Amino acid sequence: MMHTRLIIAGTVAAVSVAAAVVVVTQDRTTTVKRITDASASAPGVAWTLDAADSGLDGARFADPRAGSMYPYAAGSIRIDDHLLTIAAVVDSEGPSTEARLMSIDTASGALEWSVPATDLQSCAEQPIDDRLVCITPSYAEDPTLRTFDLATGESTDHGDTSDTFAMTVSDGHVYTTSGNLEDADVTVHRGTVDDLSADWTAPLQAWAGWEDQYADQLTVADGTGHFDVGGGFSTFDPETGDQIWASDVLDDCLSGSYRTLGDVSVGSRLDCDSYEPLGGIAYSRTGEILAQSTRDVSTYLTIDEPTDTSVPFVLGDTAYDRRTGEKRWSSQQLIIDRPADEYNEASTYGALQSVIGDVGVLSGERSMIGLDMNTGEQLWETESFSPVGTDGDMMIAVRESDLVAVDLHSGDEVWTAPLENFREGKRLSPESMVGGGGGAQILQSGATIVSLVPLPS
């Protein structure tokens, strides 16, 4: 049996890490620590947790939604007061060699339990009956749907899933896809953890290679189901399984890019002979064309959180109404043309990096620009930063060696804190943020999770 020591908020607790469930009891008293050299309004550190506290040498944090087998992106699932994450030992030549699913108390940072989780393909963001729902790969020795009790970490296997390759949970229902993805022979199911087809099964148009990302691409939200793989869109009715519309890269000369609020699907039109991009295109929930552009401009949104469907979406250099496709405004600021140099070919790409509320954040050559998404009017321009997450009307971002909060409507710096001072001797490099509100944020990197809360007045 291996032992590690977990230090949280000035208390020390012994944690036994073994093959079975580890349930940890700790002093949950927290003391908020002021960050040295931070601005007066900056939050303090409530608690920190390292991937090494899992007891696995060389482990890094990974997002349960993408499973434990190939843990290359940090992330967590937050369910009530539980923060669920994976600590895994990465193997550059194959699946992870060791992994543990961990539950952390969001108030204190106390490790509540830790269980072996080396073979998880993906986990759903929503629980069922206070249990996290995950799936192992169809090619595993004993493929199964596996649930974890949120209070104890105890796991239960729910039968054979050797024909299942994607899973999600929505409103108490389990949705899965099965069949042969490479042959475009796919079926979508809705049911329970013990009977995946209890409600219905239906054919679904979808195609992809087995090397593509597919396990976490099945989603159900806002009354619509999606399974977008292989560059195609596939939309279905989550109440019946009926196909609403679908696209195929080869048959429709269309490469799907992303979906945004209002179930707007954005992609690129392709030349049907050469499959070279011709321009952008956007579709409604039912597959009707909302808008088209003559220039192919790739836009990748780091954060896409518009207030509602009244905030337009962007295609090329123009903003369009999400509901009607009506043109709202245009701006050359939305596009960056980069000339060729001795190392790179000429390129054109979208400057819009994030949409938060009614503000669009553009990444320029040397600065960041805030636009009013309803009018296209420039609100502010400030020094460059890399967004991590949002907290109300603030964007939390990394700017050089600091974590900063930027007011979305003015561009002003609300507070700043040196990343090297969050932990003694360790520089924080946040990759993601698990929600934010009221001045409190939970930041996560591959090595560390940090909880920030407002300092007592």
TrEMBL record:
Tree of life domain: Bacteria
Matching InterPro entries: PQQ_rpt_dom (IPR002372), Quinoprotein_ADH-like_sf (IPR011047), WD40/YVTN_repeat-like_dom_sf (IPR015943)
Keywords: Signal
SUPFAM superfamilies: Quinoprotein alcohol dehydrogenase-like
DNA-binding keyword on record: no
Residue ranges occupied by any Pyrrolo-quinoline quinone repeat domain in the UniProt entry: 318-451
N-terminal signal peptide: 1-20
Keyword Magnesium: no
Official protein name in the record: Outer membrane protein assembly factor BamB
Species of the source: Rhodococcoides corynebacterioides
